[in-house]
Write a structure and sequence with these properties.
heterodimer; A: alpha/beta; two-stranded antiparallel ribbon; 19 helices; 14% strand; B: mainly alpha; MetI-like fold; 75% helix
C-alpha cells in the first residue's frame, strides 16, 4: 500500500513538474471554419511538441484587430502568435512590431507559398507572417440561369458582360436578383469590393503625392456603374449586405451572380447548406480592358509579435500550422475539400485537391491575377489591392464606405458621395501629414 | 362612474406596462428563439417560429469550454461587488451622516466619471495593467469592475443611508458604540434591503460589462462576454451559434434577476415615494 502511494505520489509530482516546465503560448485568432478546425487538430502539434501548450483566444474580427493592435503597440506581451491580415503585415513590419519568419525549419519550404500571397506578407523580401489561408475574389454564377439567359460566361468576363448578364438573369417575380454585391459600410466590407473594382476602372485612392482622387472621372465611373447595376439587378436592401448576407442569398438561389471572396466557393458548393450547390460556375473577377481586374488579395496569416518571450515555441507552432504536413493532416481527417485554401502552390498541383475542389484552378488564377505592390492602372505610393496599407485607412475606409453605402441606399447622389469622400480623404491625409 | 374610470385606467396602465415590458424583453426573447434555428433560418429574416434544432448549442459546447468562462463571470461579478461594497459603505456613510459643503460636488464628480467614454482611457489603463502585471488576472479585473461601478454603488447606498434617521446612530454613540460598531451593528443591519439591492444590481452590471472584460483578458480571466464575442465569424454564417452562446451567457443572470426581482424593485424604488 505504501509503495503504491509512494509511486502515485512520485508520478503526480513528475506530472506537476512537467506541467510547470511546459511552455504555454497564447494564440489570438478569429472564428472561422478553418481556424476552428485547426483548434480541433492541435493534438498533432502537442504530441510532437509535448513541452508546448496552446492557449486560444478567439475574438470577433474587429475586436481582435483592436486588441492585438493595442497589445503590440504597448508591447503588452499578451499574445505569442497573432492572426492578422495582409493589411496589417506591411504596416507592422515597418514599425518592427513583428519578428521576421526566417527560422521556420529546413522542411518548411517557404518557396512553395504562392508568390502573390508571399509578396503581400513580405517587406524588403522578408516574410513577416505565414499564410494560414489565402483568398482572392471572383465571380460565382448560376450555370442554369446563365443558360436560361442564353449567355455563356467567359473565364475572364468584362464589366459590360456582367451588366448584360445581370439584366437578363434578374427575375424579381421569382425572387432572383441578377447580381449580389457587398453594400454594407466598412473598410473590409463594401470598400474591399469597391476598391478592387475601382482598380479595374483605372481609379486609385491617391496619386503619387498622396492627393485623394475621388474627384477624378475614374471614381465617378466606378461608383455610378456600381449603383446603377445594383439598382437595376441587385437585391432589396443591398446597402446592408456584407459577405454573410450575400452568402445566404446565393445559397438560397436568390442571386444569379455573386462577386466575392474565393473562399465562398466551398460554402456555395456545399450541398448540406446550399440549394444551388451543383449549379455554380466560377470566373475571374471582371475587368474593363485596362489591364487590371476587380479582384482582391487577402490572407489570414500567423505572425509573431516582436515582444514575445516565447519566440522559439511560437515559431514551431506557426511552422506546423502553415506547413504542407498540416494540409495533409486536414485532408486525412476531414477530406481535401476542407484544407485551408490559397497558400501553397503544391496544394493546387495535387490531383486529389483538384478533384475535391472544382473551383481550385479559378481560385489560383484569381490569386495570381492580383498584385498588391502594383494594384492600379496608374502609379500609386501605396501597397494593397483592396486597401491602402497605411494606419489611417481603417478609419478613412469606413468613412468613405458609409458615404458610398448611403449612395447605394439612395440617401445621397453619387456626385455628393464622391465629393464628401474627397473632403474626408483630404482632411485625413492633411491631418496625417501626407499632404499640406 | 369614478369606479369605471379607475378600472379603465388600470386596464390601460396594465396594457401599457405589458407592451413596454415586451418591447424591452423582446431582443432577449428573439435571441433565445434564434438559438433554436439553423444558420440558414437565422439569416433568412424575421421569423418567430424556429425549427427547434439544438445544433447550435452542440456546436457551441464543442467549440468552447463554457464552464471556465462561467466561473470567471461568477468570480468577477461577485468579487468586484464585494470590493465595491467594502469601499462604498464607509464612503456613503460619511457622505450621508457627516456631510461637508463639498459632499454634493464630490457625488456629482463621481457620477460624471461614468459619462466619460471608456475607450478614452483604454491606453492608460492598459499600460497600468501591463506594468503592474494585472493583464489577464482576475484580481485586476475585479478592481477595474469595482472602480467603474463604484459611483453607482456609492450613490445608491448614499440614498438609502439618507433615509435612516441620524438620531438612531446618535443613540448608538451615546451607548458607547465605536465608529466601526456603529457602521457594522447599527447602520448595516438597518440598510440591509438597500445594500442587498445595490449588490444585486452591481452583480448584474459587472456580469454584463463587455468593454473592459474583453480588452483586459486573454485566457485566464476571460468571462462570458469574451465567450460570446468568440462566435462572431467574418466569413461564414454565425447568428444561430452567436444566439446560442448569448443565451447560455445570459441565462444565469436572467434566472438570478427573476428570483430577486422583488428585492431589486424594492431597492431601486426605495426613497422614491415619501
Amino acid at each position: 500500500m505504501k509503495l503504491r502511494t509512494l509511486t502515485l505520489g512520485l508520478l503526480s509530482a513528475s506530472a506537476l513538474a512537467f506541467a510547470a516546465h511546459a511552455e504555454s503560448i497564447t494564440i489570438a485568432t478569429v472564428n472561422n471554419g478553418d481556424m476552428v478546425r485547426m483548434q480541433k487538430l492541435t493534438d498533432d502539434f502537442t504530441s510532437k511538441n509535448p513541452d508546448i501548450q496552446l492557449q486560444w483566444v478567439t475574438l470577433e474580427e474587429n475586436v481582435l484587430r483592436e486588441r492585438v493592435t493595442t497589445d503590440i503597440a504597448t508591447k503588452g506581451g499578451q499574445y505569442d502568435v497573432m492572426t492578422i491580415g495582409t493589411y496589417e503585415v506591411p504596416i507592422w513590419a515597418k514599425q518592427s512590431w513583428l519578428l521576421p519568419l526566417d527560422k521556420l525549419g529546413d522542411d518548411y519550404d517557404a518557396k512553395d507559398i504562392i508568390p502573390a500571397i508571399a509578396g503581400g506578407l513580405s517587406v524588403d523580401g522578408k516574410l513577416y507572417a505565414a499564410p494560414f489561408y489565402g483568398e482572392s475574389s471572383f465571380v460565382m454564377y448560376r450555370k442554369d440561369l446563365m443558360e436560361k439567359a442564353g449567355l455563356t460566361m467567359p473565364d475572364a468576363p468584362t464589366w459590360d458582360f456582367i451588366k448584360q448578364a445581370a439584366d437578363k438573369m434578374t427575375d424579381r417575380a421569382n425572387g432572383v436578383n441578377g447580381v449580389c454585391l457587398r453594400g454594407k459600410a466598412g473598410w473590409g466590407e463594401n470598400m474591399a469590393f469597391l476598391t478592387a473594382m475601382s482598380n479595374s476602372f483605372g481609379a486609385r485612392w491617391f496619386d503619387e503625392n498622396w492627393k485623394p482622387q475621388f474627384d477624378q472621372p475614374e471614381w465617378k465611373n466606378t461608383l455610378q456603374f456600381y449603383v446603377d447595376l445594383m439598382k437595376a439587378d441587385g437585391p432589396e436592401g443591398a446597402s446592408s449586405n456584407g459577405f454573410n448576407e450575400n452568402l445566404a442569398l446565393f445559397q438560397q438561389g436568390k442571386c444569379g451572380m455573386w462577386i466575392d471572396a474565393t473562399v465562398a466557393a466551398s460554402f456555395v458548393s456545399d450541398p448540406k447548406n446550399s440549394t444551388v450547390a451543383d449549379k455554380v460556375g466560377y470566373a475571374l473577377a471582371p475587368d474593363n480592358g485596362l489591364g487590371k481586374r476587380g479582384n482582391w488579395l487577402w490572407a489570414w496569416s500567423l505572425a509573431i509579435p516582436a515582444g514575445t518571450q516565447k519566440a522559439e515555441a511560437a515559431e514551431k507552432f506557426v511552422a506546423w500550422a502553415t506547413s504542407k504536413h498540416y494540409a495533409e493532416l486536414v485532408a486525412s481527417k476531414e477530406g481535401w475539400a476542407n484544407v485551408p485554401p490559397g497558400t501553397r502552390s503544391s496544394l493546387y498541383a495535387n490531383p486529389e485537391y483538384q478533384k475535391a475542389a472544382p473551383f481550385a484552378k479559378m481560385t489560383l488564377d484569381s490569386i495570381n491575377a492580383a498584385d498588391p505592390t502594383h494594384p492600379t492602372v496608374k502609379p500609386v505610393p501605396y501597397v494593397g489591392v483592396q486597401f491602402v496599407a497605411i494606419p489611417e485607412f481603417q478609419g478613412l475606409g469606413t468613412t468613405v464606405g458609409q458615404l458610398f453605402s448611403a449612395a447605394l441606399a439612395g440617401q445621397s447622389s453619387v456626385d455628393d458621395a464622391l465629393k464628401q469622400a474627397q473632403d474626408a480623404a483630404t482632411a485625413a491625409m492633411t491631418e496625417g501629414g501626407y499632404i499640406q | 362612474m369614478a369606479r369605471a374610470v379607475t378600472t379603465q385606467h388600470k386596464t390601460f396602465a396594465t396594457a401599457a406596462a405589458w407592451i413596454v415590458a415586451l418591447l424591452i424583453f423582446f431582443p432577449i426573447l428573439y435571441t433565445v428563439i434564434t438559438s433554436f434555428k439553423s444558420e440558414q433560418e437565422a439569416i433568412q429574416g424575421f421569423n418567430l417560429f424556429p425549427s427547434g434544432t439544438m445544433e447550435s448549442y452542440s456546436e457551441v459546447q464543442a467549440q468552447s469550454g463554457y464552464f471556465k468562462f462561467f466561473l470567471n463571470s461568477v468570480l468577477l461579478s461577485v468579487g468586484s461587488t464585494i470590493l465595491a461594497l467594502l469601499v462604498a459603505i464607509p464612503a456613503a456613510w460619511s457622505m450621508a451622516f457627516s456631510p461637508t459643503k463639498r459632499t454634493k460636488d464630490i457625488l456629482m464628480w463621481m457620477l460624471s466619471t461614468k459619462m466619460m467614454p471608456a475607450v478614452a482611457v483604454l491606453f492608460p489603463i492598459y499600460l497600468i495593467f501591463r506594468d503592474t502585471g494585472l493583464l489577464d488576472s482576475r484580481i485586476g479585473l475585479m478592481i477595474m469592475l469595482m472602480l467603474i461601478n463604484l459611483p453607482i454603488v456609492v450613490w445608491m447606498l448614499y440614498t438609502y443611508f439618507r433615509e435612516i434617521p441620524g438620531e438612531i446612530l446618535e443613540a448608538a454613540r451615546m451607548d458607547g458604540a465605536s465608529l466601526w460598531n456603529e457602521i457594522v451593528y447599527v447602520l448595516t443591519p438597518m440598510a440591509v434591503p438597500g445594500i442587498a439591492s445595490t449588490m444585486l444590481l452591481n452583480i448584474i452590471l459587472a456580469w454584463n460589462e463587455a468593454f473592459w472584460t474583453i480588452r483586459l483578458t486573454t485566457t485566464e480571466a476571460a468571462p462570458l462576454t469574451a465567450f460570446i464575442s468568440s462566435f462572431s465569424s467574418p466569413q461564414g454564417l454565425f447568428w444561430a451559434k452567436l444566439s446560442a452562446a448569448s443565451t447560455l451567457a445570459i441565462a444565469p443572470i436572467l434566472i438570478m434577476g427573476w428570483f430577486s426581482q422583488k428585492q431589486l424593485v424594492r431597492g431601486l424604488t426605495f426613497g422614491a415615494v415619501k
